[in-house]
């Protein structure tokens, strides 16, 4: 061993490194070491450092005590080896966002039109005799108005600038908000390290090279390290290598642990050897251009010597990240990585369907966009034809060269009117409303303990029809305590006194519990005086350690005497074993193994049991059946979880057994004790479940516990109600019922089971995934089910991924579960899920409110502009006015209506379901009803306004005429009606009281008042640019009075029963049932929704006219881009937020960085966990318990 050299750093390393001199090893040496795998790595460590202890010495750290934690030392390590932080991609600057907002087609058309208009207004044709050019030029010279001809063009340009700035500012604030959310997520991820001999948790960013970190099942490694002690460690490295097999790690064979990989089994300790940009993940990230850093050059150098699998990742063409996507991974961990320390960006595999709302909105936007395009084209054609026929045919004039500019000016004016109609027709506020609503909800949901990782999850939650919940920790408090025990032939209903148990039995029991549990599990003194002791680590083990303490013994001295290094072999708990065993080597050369696990599984392996004297006696199968009947079932009926603790001795003379043959090892055990552990139901859960049931959501419990415990808890929670026809079954029975003779799952069989199933007990992860997939794919109900799933363990990954919305536990959840989830419950509480449902429904309603308001304005504005233009050759609402109306009804209204807070009443109706149209018949009634009122008023004012208000008519005004009072009143009345209709739009289900709860929404009040004030300013002082003249106070009062009429008219409309109006159609449907059948047939093929099919059929052309929707996409991209760090999100391919994701619309810079999404690269991948064996998942017990607790329900 190279001990002597380790203490004196070799000269070269000091000379080489400028500031690595303090340590006996440089960054580059460690980095090169981490690029090696398995045997190569072991040899390199032996050649260069002697062994891992040698590396520890050079890094000046102790494998047992860890670092000192002295700030000076930590600072030195930061300087020498870097920080565990990967700098995020630079945020887009405000100017970049402005430039992106300017890319929008409609705005560009408007800008060009405005510039032409400006140019022509400055061009005065020489000697253009106005008579010769016809009446067109009549009145041009009034009051030097010709000089003011530039104003309209300038005003349009100015409005465009305002629109662009508003859009860019929205994007910018979203991005800022999102980065705040990111950093919060990052700060919350902690990792366990040993410092000064104490086990502490520190934020991942504070890890330094030389730290001794403890790793366990379910962790996501935040830095590279070298194993210094491990038990049965298996790692899923698919995120780096793409290989789906789990890699077994051991000191002898393969001690290299890489950042971004998942611990799937076992536990151990590692010394951190590379952090941040120097870790394997960081290196890949640098290649993706995320950490623009001076490291880049070094990386390129070291890459060339890297192993082949790393070299192929270094390709920097289009497919940059494809090598990194874990498309074959067993645990579905392919959601985008969020933590700073796990930066392997992965291409996200699309969920089965895009979010319900986005699907409906895409269709609706497509339909409205088409209509707008047709109307605007018609307007331009009619205006030009009318002008040409009137001038050249009716008046019989000839086209004179000197008149050309005047004619062109007319054509430009017509063109601007056409574009304006289009601007008003296209609801570009929709994506903005969606984004604002979601962003607002996400922010507020943080307060309700919901940390939303995928924006659309929040809205999908509103449609949820089923929740499959875990039992432990979600429905129960996850604070386990032993309340009953069976030891020495006696069943104690409470924890026995220590002297009631024979000392020999007590000794072996205390040893077994203390040693055969993760050493990271502890019971600490309470934080507050008089509080409960704190449970750290696995909760079931905490309960057993609590039992040791209650028996007046202590587990710590035993652990100190036998530290983890002395454990000979550990079989860690996993979902197929359902037990954990630890082997110790005795002084005489024999071995002793301690085991614990689910009672019916461990008891089946017991051949002996300790009797009242503490002596082993034979334990036959019939004894076991009797014990199950008399001890375990009664415990389970009380809702207790039963755990059996046992041991086995291997005598020295028999030689060393073959440890890999688990079936032989885990046999002939001697049972010490069976304990009943209670996990009390959270007090607030029964009420929350009642709310769910009232809201039309079915709650199902899926647990690994036995069926009696599960049934007892389900009854306490209210999942099972007396007198209801329901099913409770075990995983094994479930599999028998749903699989055919070949062992394949059949949907028809599943459809017979799931509607009545309420409790699935002893289920494996595969069962959970099968159930969720079966419910989602099922077509038996009227609507397709939307399923939410909660999970905390690594094995829940696939089900969380498959579900429409996956909830992971923030406290008890493993990193793998959090990665696969959409929402993290920061308090692990079921009531937070109910809050999420409320917010989800609220998002849906907010969008509907906005639509109801928006479409009314659209219909009215388009019809007024169109008919006005056709009859009077001039739109009553000028381009600039239209842009202002567009601004209030889009940007501001989406702000006002999208931020309504949710109310409890949202939980009193059933979920909308996937096929419910966005615009219900009630909403259609409101839209058309209000449109009729507004059109009647506007046309009355337009054609009879001058006589009513006794003033000059504004119709047929010549080019550049000054703004008329008449048209100002038309414009003002129009805006007033929109303002009051905005209040009507707050209710969409035909409620009478539209003011209810208006004070709870300060944003709404301020937007309405702000708009009103701005309108006064525009009308009184807007002058020529806004084509307005100041109005008298009388005229203002009339305008407001007509506006208030909207509220009264709204009451009248809501009095008409909707069901009488059979002719009303709904709009904005979701996918229908036939589509679902088709979809199932093509599962695995590309999934494109039907709105998109339409687009692809050569109709992309009209998209180009589809205005600012693109601009708002940036808003969403701002949200997403920080998530995907430059990778195109596949979900966004099929959503309203991404008309830009089609290559036709991608600006050059984005085109280069595009990465093929799943839709382009092929199949959707269905992920199943590895731990499933045969039909029933791992080690399922036979239905040992007939339904013996029926009577207790």
**DSSP, total strands:** 26
Distance between the termini: 67 Å
Query: Which class of the domain at 423-441 and 839-903 and 916-1064 in CATH terms?
Result: Mainly Alpha
Largest sheet: 9 strands, mixed
Question: What's the shape?
Answer: elongated
Average pLDDT: 74
Determine the fraction of residues in helical runs and give it as a percent range.
40-55%
Keywords: ATP-binding, Calcium, Calcium transport, Calmodulin-binding, Cell membrane, Ion transport, Magnesium, Membrane, Metal-binding, Nucleotide-binding, Phosphoprotein, Translocase, Transmembrane, Transmembrane helix, Transport
EC number: 7.2.2.10
Pfam families: ATP_Ca_trans_C, Cation_ATPase, Cation_ATPase_C, Cation_ATPase_N, E1-E2_ATPase, Hydrolase_3
GO biological process, one term: regulation of cytosolic calcium ion concentration
Task: Give keywords.
single chain, alpha+beta, Calcium-transporting ATPase, transmembrane domain, Rossmann fold, Calcium-transporting ATPase, cytoplasmic domain N, 8-stranded mixed beta sheet, 26 strands, disordered N terminus, P-type calcium transporter activity
């Amino acid at each position: 061993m190279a001990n002597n050299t380790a203490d004196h750093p070799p000269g070269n390393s000091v000379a080489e490194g400028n500031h690595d001199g303090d340590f006996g090893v440089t960054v580059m040496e460690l980095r090169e070491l981490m690029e090696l795998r398995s045997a190569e790595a072991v040899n390199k460590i032996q050649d260069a450092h002697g062994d891992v202890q040698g590396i520890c010495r050079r890094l000046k750290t102790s494998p047992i005590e860890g670092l000192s934690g002295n700030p000076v030392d930590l600072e030195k390590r930061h300087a020498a080896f870097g920080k565990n932080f990967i700098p995020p991609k630079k945020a887009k600057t405000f100017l970049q966002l402005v430039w992106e907002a300017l890319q929008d087609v409609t705005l560009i058309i408007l800008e060009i039109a405005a510039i032409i208009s400006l140019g022509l207004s400055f061009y005065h044709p020489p000697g253009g005799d106005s008579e010769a050019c016809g009446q067109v030029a009549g009145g041009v010279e009034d009051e030097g108005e010709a000089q003011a001809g530039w104003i309209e063009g300038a005003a349009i340009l100015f409005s465009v600038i305002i629109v662009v700035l508003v859009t860019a500012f929205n994007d910018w604030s979203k991005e800022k908000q999102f980065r705040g959310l990111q950093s919060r997520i990052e700060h919350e991820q902690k990792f366990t390290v040993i410092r000064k001999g104490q086990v502490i948790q520190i934020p991942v960013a504070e890890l330094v090279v030389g730290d001794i970190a403890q790793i366990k099942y379910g962790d996501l490694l935040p830095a590279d390290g070298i194993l210094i002690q491990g038990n049965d460690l298996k790692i899923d490295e698919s995120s780096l290598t793409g290989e789906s097999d789990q890699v077994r790690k051991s000191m002898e064979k393969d001690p290299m642990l890489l950042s971004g990989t998942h611990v799937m089994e076992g536990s151990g300790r590692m010394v951190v050897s590379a952090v941040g940009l120097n870790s394997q993940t960081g290196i890949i990230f640098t290649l993706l251009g995320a950490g623009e850093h001076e490291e880049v050059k070094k990386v390129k150098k070291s890459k060339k010597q890297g192993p082949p699998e790393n070299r192929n990742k270094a390709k920097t063409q289009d497919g940059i990240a494809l090598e990194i996507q874990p498309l074959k991974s067993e645990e579905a961990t392919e959601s985008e990585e969020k933590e700073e320390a796990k930066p392997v960006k992965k291409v996200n595999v699309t969920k089965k369907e895009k979010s319900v709302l986005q699907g409906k909105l895409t269709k609706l936007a497509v339909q409205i966009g088409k209509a707008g395009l047709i109307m605007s084209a018609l307007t331009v054609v009619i205006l030009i034809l009318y002008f040409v026929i009137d001038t050249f045919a009716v008046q019989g004039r000839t086209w004179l060269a000197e008149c050309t500019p005047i004619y062109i000016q007319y054509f430009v004016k017509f063109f601007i009117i056409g574009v304006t109609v289009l601007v008003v027709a296209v609801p570009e506020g929709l994506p903005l409303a969606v984004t604002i609503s979601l962003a607002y909800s996400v922010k507020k949901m943080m307060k309700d303990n919901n940390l939303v990782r995928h924006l659309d999850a929040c809205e999908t939650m509103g449609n949820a029809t089923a929740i499959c919940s875990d039992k432990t920790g979600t429905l129960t408090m996850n604070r386990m305590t032993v309340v009953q025990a069976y030891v020495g032939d006696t069943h104690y209903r409470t924890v026995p006194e220590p002297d009631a148990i024979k000392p020999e039995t007590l000794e072996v029991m205390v040893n077994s519990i203390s040693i055969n549990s993760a050493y990271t599990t502890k019971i600490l003194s309470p934080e507050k005086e008089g509080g409960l002791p704190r449970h750290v680590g696995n909760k079931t083990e905490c309960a057993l350690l609590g039992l040791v303490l209650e028996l007046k013994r202590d587990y710590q001295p035993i652990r100190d005497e036998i530290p983890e290094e002395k454990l000979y072999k550990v079989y860690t708990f996993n979902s197929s074993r359902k037990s954990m065993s630890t082997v110790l080597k005795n002084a005489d050369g024999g071995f002793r193994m301690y085991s614990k696990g689910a009672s019916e599984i461990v008891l089946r392996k017991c051949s002996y049991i300790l009797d009242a004297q503490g002596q082993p006696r034979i334990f036959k199968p019939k004894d076991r059946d009797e014990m199950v009947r008399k001890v375990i079932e009664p415990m389970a009926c009380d809702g207790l979880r039963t755990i059996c603790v046992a041991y086995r001795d291997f005598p020295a003379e028999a030689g060393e057994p073959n440890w890999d043959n688990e079936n032989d090892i885990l046999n002939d055990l001697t049972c010490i004790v069976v304990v009943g552990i209670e996990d009390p139901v959270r007090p607030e859960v029964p009420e929350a479940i009642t709310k769910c049931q009232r809201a039309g959501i079915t709650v199902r419990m899926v647990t690994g516990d036995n069926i009696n415990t599960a049934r007892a808890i389900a009854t306490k929670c209210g999942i099972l109600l007396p007198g209801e026809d329901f099913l409770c079954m075990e995983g094994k029975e479930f599999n028998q019922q749903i699989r055919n003779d070949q062992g394949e799952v059949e949907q028809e069989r599943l459809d017979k089971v799931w509607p009545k199933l309420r409790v699935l007990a002893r289920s494996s992860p595969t069962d959970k995934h099968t159930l969720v997939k079966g419910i989602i794919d099922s077509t038996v109900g009227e609507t397709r089910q939307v399923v939410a799933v909660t999970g905390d363990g690594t094995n829940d990954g696939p089900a969380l991924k498959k579900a429409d919305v996956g909830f992971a536990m923030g406290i008890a959840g493993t990193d793998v579960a959090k990665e696969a989830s959409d929402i993290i419950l920061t308090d692990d509480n079921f009531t937070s899920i109910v809050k999420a449902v409320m917010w989800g429904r609220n998002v849906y309603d907010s969008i509907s409110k906005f639509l109801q308001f928006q479409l009314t304005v659209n219909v009215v504005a388009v019809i007024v502009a169109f008919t006005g233009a056709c009859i009077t050759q001039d739109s009553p609402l000028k381009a600039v006015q239209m842009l202002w109306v567009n601004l209030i009804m889009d940007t501001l209204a989406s702000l006002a209506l999208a931020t309504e807070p949710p109310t409890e009443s949202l939980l009193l109706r059933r979920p909308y379901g996937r096929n419910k149209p966005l615009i219900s018949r009630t909403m259609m009634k409101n839209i058309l009803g209000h449109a009729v009122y507004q059109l009647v008023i506007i046309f009355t004012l337009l054609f009879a306004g001058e006589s009513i208000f006794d003033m000059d008519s504004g119709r047929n005004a010549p080019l550049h005429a000054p703004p008329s009072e008449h048209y100002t009143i038309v414009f003002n009345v129009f805006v007033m009606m929109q303002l009051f209709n905005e209040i009507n739009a707050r209710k969409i289900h035909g409620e009478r009281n539209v003011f209810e709860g208006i004070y709870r929404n300060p944003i709404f009040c301020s937007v309405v008042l702000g708009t009103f004030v701005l309108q006064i300013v525009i009308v009184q002082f807007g002058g020529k640019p806004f084509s307005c003249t100041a109005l008298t106070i009388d005229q203002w009062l009339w305008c407001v009075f007509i506006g208030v009429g909207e509220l009264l008219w709204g009451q009248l409309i809501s009095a008409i029963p909707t069901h009488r109006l059979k002719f009303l159609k709904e709009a904005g449907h979701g996918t229908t049932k036939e589509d679902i059948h088709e979809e199932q047939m093509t599962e695995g093929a590309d999934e494109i929704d039907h709105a998109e099919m339409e687009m692809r059929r050569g109709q992309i052309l009209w998209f180009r006219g589809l205005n600012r929707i693109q601009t708002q996409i940036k808003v969403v991209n701002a949200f997403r881009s920080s998530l995907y760090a430059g990778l195109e999100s596949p979900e966004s391919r099929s959503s309203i937020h991404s008309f830009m994701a089609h290559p036709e619309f991608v600006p050059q810079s984005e085109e280069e960085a595009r990465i093929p999404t799943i839709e382009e690269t092929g199949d959707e991948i269905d992920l199943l966990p590895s731990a499933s064996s045969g039909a029933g998942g791992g080690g399922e017990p036979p239905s040992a318990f007939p339904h013996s607790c029926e009577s207790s329900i």
